[in-house]
Amino acid sequence: MDFLNLLAESGKTSKGTENTIVFVFEILMMIISIIMIIVGMLQNKKSQTGLSALNGGNEELFSNTKERGFERTMSLWMMSLGIIFFVLTIIISILTNTVLK
Fold first, then answer.
1. For residue 72, what are the domain limits?
2. What is the rounded average pLDDT of the residues 48-68?
3. Is 21 left (phi over 0), alpha (psi -120 to 50) or beta?
């Protein structure tokens, strides 16, 4: 309810209003990051061992396997959430550097 009132009073901005808008975007980023962690944990692992990253062994690096079904859905979710997270980061950066100065 407060966020809608803040948007309605765009002409009468004060420091508190601007801080609240940035706070709302930060809360959205936190929610997106938690969802990204959950989606990342649900994704299938590509390699069989976790040590393959340390010793440089990745047999499936150049394989021609296509993602299907649940794997593809999780991959699309992760990419979409990553793009949203990136855009929110840029918005918060612009707001804090222009509006709050």
1. 15-43+68-101
2. 59
3. alpha
